[in-house]
Every structure is written in structure tokens, then in C-alpha cells.
From TrEMBL, chain A:
Transmembrane segments: none
Keyword ATP-binding among record annotations: no
The species this protein was found in: Gossypium arboreum
Chief location category: cytoplasm
Pfam family, any one: RNase_PH
GO BP annotations listed: exonucleolytic trimming to generate mature 3'-end of 5.8S rRNA from tricistronic rRNA transcript (SSU-rRNA, 5.8S rRNA, LSU-rRNA); nuclear mRNA surveillance; nuclear polyadenylation-dependent rRNA catabolic process; rRNA catabolic process; TRAMP-dependent tRNA surveillance pathway; U1 snRNA 3'-end processing; U4 snRNA 3'-end processing; U5 snRNA 3'-end processing
Annotated protein name in UniProt: Ribosomal RNA-processing protein 42
CC per GO annotation: cytoplasmic exosome (RNase complex); nuclear exosome (RNase complex); nucleolus
GO molecular function: mRNA 3'-UTR AU-rich region binding
SUPFAM superfamilies: Ribonuclease PH domain 2-like, Ribosomal protein S5 domain 2-like
Homology family: Belongs to the RNase PH family.
Location in the cell: Cytoplasm; Nucleus, Nucleolus
Cross-referenced InterPro entries: ExoRNase_PH_dom1 (IPR001247), ExoRNase_PH_dom2 (IPR015847), ExoRNase_PH_dom2_sf (IPR036345), Exosome_comp_Rrp42_subfam (IPR050590), PNPase/RNase_PH_dom_sf (IPR027408), Ribosomal_Su5_D2-typ_SF (IPR020568)
Keywords for this protein: Cytoplasm, Exosome
From TrEMBL, chain B:
UniProt organism field: Gossypium arboreum (Tree cotton)
Localisation: Cytoplasm; Nucleus
Protein name according to UniProt: Exosome complex component RRP41-like
Annotated Exoribonuclease phosphorolytic domain residues: 42-166, 170-231
UniProt keyword annotation of rRNA processing present: yes
């Protein structure tokens, strides 16, 4: 994917071994993160996150739907990621499909919690309007505009920002109907309900290059990785999901070590992200 | 697939956990039993058999409780012309469900990610540099889905690869753990999976003690992660032994 000469490869690997990466960062430093909210007026909530040259957009759309028969007290949440060919020529046609599915599945795993809904970043019970009859279906779409590594962390940050930007219209249920009928609902276009986004985790991807691991790898650095572990951590410091990429095996003790490092890094990332989101919301209101 | 004498299904339950942490279930959870009457840290009996498909280079059949899986391996054969030159071999994995595998017909198509998960679990164990310019195809078919499908598919696929004579560093054994309330149950069945609060799947190479793939869902605290990983690693090493015995049996049978 990334064409690198032997010299460049050594430069990257050697830099990481000495805790000074090619762009001057340390191993556990993120690139500056920029957040913009409300970029897509058509959606109920949206955000754009830039992390170096990586640029992603997340949008949240809500539609009224019917909850599934198995879980009548929960709304449905779907997460999809699209890799646009504008980001890289290899995403053209079906080329981006594999990466898109991988990212979507990883995000679903990290944000939606277990089957019972426990540990989910977004509480699915808050989406129910009338139990068993009407609920909000939340469609979260991620779009990769420009790719320079660490897509998963950027997408998770964008989704977190988009959800805190999301206003779900208030719904009034018209007079009580018989139990077998679909109730009539009235969607308000003035009152909006905000989400509680404090429980939404961030994803920290630790990329292992040589014997060390780094956060927020650029695509050059990713091309030198042996394996990468993406860990999603919430504010309480609990692990909400974990996925491993790259084929090379890891020793179990290294994984546990990575988890504790990710916890430590996530604290700073969550704080940074929260202040960026607040700043973005403030500047959106001004304009 | 008639079982030969001496090849009765063997279980691979880890023996840790209950000893190190006796009071896992208290008060209200005491009367809770698993749907098939197993203990929380007790695995289903595992049955493996190689050589299930004659036309394939290698194949294996696995049966754990009601989960039944068949995996065939084809190749190494020449990579498609459209693919670029590669001095390492390629691995191509596909997991599919029969329409009658799930309680609701055709529900198996929900598991699109299984193919890429199988690939990632296996590629770390295969010596890809031993077959340059060629592709190995691994096709898995879930005949009956009874819970813990992906771990069974992965274990079975590594056995099929061994049967095909593909060079590997080690067999890959996979085990999953579900978190229900504050209990950890190993090798969950379909019913338990649908109510789980969180799950962990670990695939590892038992002799090398290396994790090839690891996934978590749901919220986990650090002590729980440690306990669940220990359970999985222990179960994996036992499952590895069961798989090894199966290979040895097949080899000694063919010598006779």
C-alpha cells in the first residue's frame, strides 16, 4: 500500500525504538485533534474530526421505527462506515468494502456493548417511545474522507462528537389507542432531546512496531506494524471492547500491558476530546 | 462419520477459576443453572475428526454440543491472475451458514465478519512464506449453530489446515467466554449468547503461548479480564491437546 524504501523503513522503526517518531512525536502522543460539529444540516447530528491528515465525518440520523419483538424495550442502533474513493484509489468499487466492514464491526463491538445491551455507550432503552410499538432507529454513518492511519480512533471520536451534537425530536404520543393498534405520534420540530454522551467510550489503537507500541500511527507507521490492538475505554476506565488486527501473535502478558497503557492514554484523550467538542459546540452556536 | 472406538468426545474444561476464586456465585445466583446443566467453567465435550471431505486437500469436522461445523481446505493452488505477485502465500477464508443452521431460517447471514475474523485468527499461525505465489482456500460451513460458532470454526479450520499438510507454527485453538451478570460462563450455548452482557473470544497457539486473535464486547473491569483470559488460555491449551490427539489418531490409522 505505502511504498517505502528500506532506508525509510529503518528510519521509522529506529525512531520508534528511540521514542522519537518521524513527525517528532513520542510513542504515546496523539496528533492534534480538531473537531467541528454540525457540519451536515440534513442529519440530526454530525461532526468532522481531523487527526493529522486523517479526516472523517460522522452523521447521526434518527427515524421512527418498530422495536424488534425480542427486545421490545430497546431502540435499534446501526453503525456503518464508508470508505470513499476520494481518500485513496484502492477504495474504488469494492476495494474499500473489506476495510469498511472491518471498521463497522469494530465500532459496533466497541460502542454497542453486549447482546443484552449492557455496557453500551448509547443506552438503547432511551430510544423507546412506546414500548413494543414505536422506537427511534439510530443510523450512525461514518465517512472516511482522507486516510492517514488510525481511522478507527478518529471514527470513534467523530461518532462521540456527532452524538453529543445530536438532538432527537421530542415525540408526543396521541391519545391511548387499543393495544393491537399502532399508536399515533406527533413529532415536534421545536423541542429536541439531547443524548447523554458521557458514557460513550473512546478507542485507543496501540500499534506494535518492533518491540514497542505506539498510539495514533500514521499510514507509513501502520505499514510497518506487526499487529495492532484497538481498545475502547470509557470514562470509568472500564474496557468496552477490544479487537486485534494484524496476523502476528502476541503474548498474553503483552496484551494485558497494552490494556493498562490504553487506560492511561484514554484519560487524556477523553479530556482533550471533551474540551474540543465543547469548543466546537460553542463556536457553532456563535455563527 | 462413524466414531471409532477410543475416540469418544473429550472435554477440555479449564481447571482454574473454581479453585482460585470459590465464591463467584452468591445468594440469588446460586439456583441458576446453565441450559444444558453444565458448571460455569465446564466446556462441552469436543469431538473432532479429520478427512471429512474426500475431494479437498484437507478437511475436518467438529462437533461441540449441538454446534456442528465442517471445514475444507483447498490448495495451495495458483493465485488468480488478477492478483499481484506476492512472495508469501495468500490465505482466503470464507464462513457460511446453512439455511437450516439457525432457529430462524437464513439468519446465518448476520455473520459477515466471521470470514475476516477466521482469516485473522489463522494467518498468524501459518508459515505463509512456504508457498509463495499461491493461495490456500479455507471454506467453513456451519451445519448447525448451537453457540460459540466462531471459536469452533477456528479450531476446526486449523485442524483442516494441518490435515492438508499446510506448514504451521502451531495449531490454533479458540474458546469464548460469556459474561452473564457477574458470572463468567465458558463455551456459551446459543441461548446464553443471546442474553450475554459481554463476551470474550480468544484464539491462541497453545504450545507457543501466543494469542493470535482476541475480541471483547461489553463492559469489562481489569480483574474480570484477567480471570476470563486465564480461563480461555487454560481451556485453549486443553483443547489443543484434544485436537492433537485427533491428528495422531488419523495418522496412526492411515499407517495401518
Amino acid at each position: 500500500m505505502v511504498g517505502l524504501s528500506v532506508g525509510e523503513k529503518h528510519f521509522i522503526q529506529g525512531g520508534i525504538a528511540q521514542d522519537l517518531r518521524s513527525d517528532g512525536r513520542k510513542r504515546l502522543t496523539y496528533r492534534p485533534i480538531y473537531v467541528e460539529t454540525g457540519v451536515i444540516p440534513q442529519a440530526h447530528g454530525s461532526a468532522r474530526v481531523r487527526l493529522g491528515a486523517t479526516d472523517v465525518i460522522a452523521s447521526v440520523k434518527a427515524e421512527l421505527g418498530k422495536p424488534s419483538a425480542l427486545q421490545p424495550d430497546k431502540g435499534k442502533i446501526a453503525i456503518y462506515v464508508d470508505c470513499s474513493p476520494t481518500a485513496a484509489p484502492m477504495f474504488e468499487g469494492r476495494g474499500g468494502e473489506e476495510l469498511s466492514t472491518e471498521l463497522s464491526v469494530a465500532l459496533q463491538r466497541c460502542l454497542l456493548g453486549g447482546k443484552s445491551g449492557a455496557g453500551a455507550g448509547i443506552d438503547p432503552t432511551s430510544l423507546v417511545v412506546v414500548e413494543g410499538k414505536v422506537c427511534w432507529d439510530l443510523y450512525i454513518d461514518g465517512l472516511v474522507i482522507s486516510s492517514d492511519g488510525n481511522l478507527l480512533d478518529a471514527l470513534a471520536a467523530a461518532i462521540k462528537a456527532a452524538l453529543s451534537n445530536t438532538g432527537i425530536p421530542k415525540v408526543d404520543v396521541a391519545v391511548e389507542t387499543r393495544s393491537d393498534e399502532q399508536p399515533e405520534v406527533n413529532i415536534s420540530d421545536e423541542e429536541f432531546l439531547q443524548f447523554d454522551t458521557s458514557g460513550i467510550p473512546v478507542i485507543v489503537t496501540l500499534t506494535k512496531v518492533g518491540r514497542h507500541y505506539i498510539v495514533d500511527a500514521t499510514s507509513e507507521e501502520e505499514s510497518q506494524m506487526s499487529s495492532a490492538v484497538s481498545i475502547s475505554v470509557n470514562r470509568k476506565g472500564h474496557i468496552c471492547g477490544l479487537t486485534k488486527r494484524g496476523g502476528v501473535g502476541l503474548d498474553p502478558s503483552i496484551i494485558l500491558d497494552m490494556i493498562s497503557v490504553a487506560k492511561h492514554v484514554s484519560e487524556q484523550l477523553i479530556n482533550k476530546l471533551d474540551s474540543e467538542i465543547a469548543a466546537a459546540e460553542a463556536s457553532e452556536e456563535e455563527s | 462419520m462413524a466414531a471409532k472406538p477410543g475416540s469418544a468426545p473429550v472435554t477440555y474444561s479449564p481447571n482454574l477459576g473454581q479453585k482460585t476464586r470459590p465464591p463467584i456465585f452468591k445468594d440469588n445466583d446460586l439456583d441458576w443453572v446453565r441450559p444444558d446443566g453444565r458448571g460455569f467453567h465446564q466446556c462441552r465435550p469436543a469431538f473432532f475428526r479429520t478427512g471429512a471431505v474426500n475431494s479437498a486437500s484437507g478437511s475436518a469436522y467438529a462437533e461441540l454440543g449441538s454446534t456442528k461445523v465442517i471445514v475444507s481446505v483447498f490448495g495451495p493452488r495458483e493465485s488468480k491472475k488478477a492478483m499481484m505477485y506476492s512472495d508469501t502465500g495468500r490465505l482466503n477464508c470464507n464462513v457460511s451458514y446453512t439455511t437450516f443452521a439457525t432457529p430462524v431460517r437464513g439468519q446465518g447471514s448476520d455473520h459477515k465478519e466471521f470470514s475476516s475474523m477466521l482469516l485473522k485468527a489463522l494467518e498468524g499461525a501459518i508459515m505463509l512464506e512456504t508457498f509463495p505465489k499461491t493461495t490456500v482456500d479455507v471454506f467453513a460451513l456451519v451445519l448447525e449453530s448451537g453457540g460459540s460458532d466462531l471459536p469452533v470454526v477456528i479450531s476446526c479450520a486449523s485442524l483442516a489446515l494441518a490435515d492438508a499438510g499446510i506448514m504451521m507454527y502451531d495449531l490454533v485453538a479458540a474458546v469464548s467466554v460469556s459474561c452473564l451478570g457477574k458470572n463468567l460462563v465458558i463455551d456459551p450455548v446459543l441461548e446464553e449468547e443471546s442474553y450475554q452482557d459481554g463476551s470474550l473470544m480468544l484464539t491462541c497457539m497453545p504450545s507457543r503461548y501466543e494469542v493470535t486473535q482476541l475480541t471483547f464486547t461489553g463492559e469489562w473491569s481489569t480483574p474480570d479480564i484477567n480471570e476470563a483470559m486465564q480461563l480461555c488460555l487454560d481451556a485453549c491449551s486443553k483443547l489443543g491437546k484434544v485436537m492433537r490427539t485427533c491428528l495422531k489418531e488419523a495418522a496412526s490409522a492411515s499407517q495401518e
